[in-house]
Amino acid sequence: MTTSTQTALFTDLAEGFTPHPAPAQQRYGEAGLFANRALWQIIEKAATSTPAAPAVTDATGTLTYAQFTDAVRARAAGFVAAGLRPGQRVVLQQNNSVQFAITLLGLLRAGLVPVMTLPAHRIAEIAHLAAGADAVAYLTEDGRRGYDYRELATELQQRVPGVEHVFIDGDPGAFAALPDADPDTVELPGPTDPDLPALLLVSGGTTGLPKLIARTHNDYLLNAHQSVRVTGLTRADTYLAALPAAHNFPLCCPGVLGVWSAGAHAVFTDNPSPDAAFDLIEKHRVTITALVPALAQVWCAATEWEPADISSLRLLQVGGSKLAQADAEALDAALGPITQQVFGMAEGLICYTRLDDPRDLVQQVQGSPMSEFDEVRIVDENGDDVPDGTDGELLVRGPYTIRGYYRAESTTGGQASLSFTPDGFYRSGDRVRRLPSGHLVVTGRIKDTIVRAGENVAADDVEENLVAHPSVRQAAVIGVPDASLGERICALVVASHEHAPGQPLPLAELRSFLADRGLAAFKLPDEVRLVSSLPLTAIGKVDKKALRAQLDAEPASAKS
Ligand code: OOB
């Protein structure tokens, strides 16, 4: 490839990417925050110093660092041989597996930029992301749990003709298999600009279509390295990737990338249920894993009946949505003091509780920013800073937080400028308060507020108190239009195993329980509905948009 072709490809990648302003970038650089390497090089250290150590495992077996490195080079060579060129975008959608690991690093080694979609995404999201990223290829697998991703591929190529290549892990059908080639027969790309995007994450919001988030080699390496420090990860650790590994949390907080940078061992599973995961923990002596709160709750309950020995776990990271204090306490009681709260976002900022924080604090807060260079502001609706202890919207700026969505005009319908302040802070939309100690407590989403008879009720506040009731496993409250109140508070509740099956959960009882916990009268639910489950997003957060749609579609007779 000529230098001018390569330059043209990187110019295309850089289009629609918002870097840090030069003075900020310089300040971060001078502070030594950036490794100035390519993201794939994260495995180089272990490959040289401990080549025989296990790097990745799934049900098909284990690869050592030496074998993993060879497989990554062969996969990268396969992409080059197939005609893909550095800087081009490739939509990646694979379940947790060794093949996912090889593909991800193979793409990076070939200078390609993966778009990190989740297995639960479907054509609407995949087509939107592929078009937004101007992707030339889609890489997925044949099928899983009755879903055929090859059909998605066919439809994707019809909708987004720029997606020229499709690669399939498993039976490729009409498409190409995962490519592998002899690395000595092709030229792998040389050094890359570490301040260009290495990969594109997908925003985790529960409203609208996802947005693209470009993370650079330098900022994502910083994310991994700082997360390794905060979690005390060493080569003696074994990490279980139980959440879909394309998500920022299991990918880089510290996740599998952090694991490889530390020379530790990553075990992949696509079945996070306790019966499957506990056996893996016992078998591989897993020391650290990451869960969303809904899964953590299931694991917590399962410790009562699952026979597997999971005492090797030293750190259970929980994040992605709010972990209710009652659930945090239950986790400590069931598993010992190993829970770490993680409050993060694909856009950047990651907050952790620290390993030496007192347990009562760990149960109550969502952590504090991982880097001293994270600038956090908490502001009222006028954009003015609020004092500690007062709720406001979290704004953030820092070395690994984006300054703009990737190609925002095409993926956000021109609304992207609303997400950033003129001086470059990301408006998270999260309602938080800061304790004098600097720890953050997440109190909800700015917009997830019910206006009942003129009073603002934060949905999270009611939900957090509802799950403290012994009969309640999960709860979501939403505002339902009401002629006299404007909106009334509807609580959707999944019963716990302590609740007698088939029995109602009387509204009056729940209201008096909440009132006894000190909840103001205007925040008490006007209506309660028992449901068997709550709809979840691709990573496992309660999907309020889907919930509202379900409620709208339900016959009025279902109301209690
Ligand atoms: C993580 O990332 P995303 O991009 O899927 O979602 C970010 C949003 C946050 O803005 C916040 O609304 C919510 O998810 N969130 C939490 C939370 N962690 C995330 N809300 C309350 N408590 C928490 N602990 O979800 C993510 C990325 C990296 C690490 C962990 C989570």
From TrEMBL:
Keywords: Ligase
Domain (AMP-binding enzyme C-terminal) ranges: 462-541
SUPFAM superfamilies (alphabetical): Acetyl-CoA synthetase-like (SSF56801)
Keyword Ligase in annotation: yes
GO molecular function terms noted in the UniProt entry: ligase activity, forming carbon-sulfur bonds
Keyword NAD: no
Domain AMP-dependent synthetase/ligase: 44-406
Name of the protein: 2,3-dihydroxybenzoate-AMP ligase
